[in-house]
Amino acid sequence: MPEEKLFFEDASEGDEAPELSLEVTRTHIVKYAGAGGDFNPIHTDEAFAKAVGLPSVFAMGLMQGGYLARMLTDWLGVGNLKRYKIRFTGQVWPGETITCRGRITRRRSADGENLVDCELAVVNQDGQSKIVGEATAVLPSRG
Amino acid sequence: MVNESIVGKEFPPFEFLVERGKIKEFARALGDRNPIYTDIEVARRVGFEAVPAPPTYTASFMHQVPDENFLLNLMAEMEIDVARSVHGESEYEYIRPIEAGDVLTVTMTVKDIQKKEGRRGGAMTLITTEATYANQDGEVVQKDRMVFIERASVA
Fold first, then answer.
1. What is the pTM of this model?
2. Of A59, B12, B68, B135, which one is least surrounded by beta carbons within 10 A?
3. Do B46 and A35 make contact, defined as CB atoms within 8 angstroms?
4. How far is CA B152 from the centre of its chain?
5. What is the CATH number of domain A8-138?
6. ipTM for the predicted complex
7. Does residue B100 contact residue B36 with C-beta atoms inside 8 Å?
């Protein structure tokens, strides 16, 4: 049914996802605001952000949460996720380069499904944490 | 200050139409060039009936329906002080795929309210909400939980 990218037989505990990195710009934030609908001016209006004492606008947590999910679907395929959980640990500011990472922590079978549990992270160029997360996905079998 | 008596409260359900153009826009905004989100033939070859929604797509309902101030209104109803609050966590439980054309019924509930000692002193309040999405056939397809953190007011 879902996309076949990584097969269960080819997955091992400790395997890492191909990293996804980008330098976040105000344009990324504005595009996400338009697509997701979050027009809180703290994310899109520089003058407003400065007036409330912030150095600049900053990204919505779910923007980097969306990039991290894209890294997951690029790696494991669309339609395979069972669970995706993220905790926001730091704001992302324009000019920062963020990197999305994932690693298989457990490979298991349960109720006839082949599953992998993953630990996830988004960090900036200095290694500061922005998101800590985890996911569980069902992987197709070569059968 | 959060009103703790609202744990278990269920808000009136409303409809959320999953639109194909909105899925494309959402995927593009995240730099996602996977044709599965834009080309129905690619989606069908994989086994979907229409283009599927990306994993975090459902979060966008809060800014579309029932109106664009839904989240602010929800926070006001829970008596959360928006100025002292941040979105702390999101969790998605995927049961069946969500695809373009689906008409989802969204039901929001307040799952949990907890007080914790903050790192800088003072109590923080953690409010967990859950959105349940049922499709046009009445099947529950996804559940999203969000945690909002309200910091202690400055004395």
1. 0.95
2. B12
3. no
4. 25
5. 3.10.129.10
6. 0.96
7. no
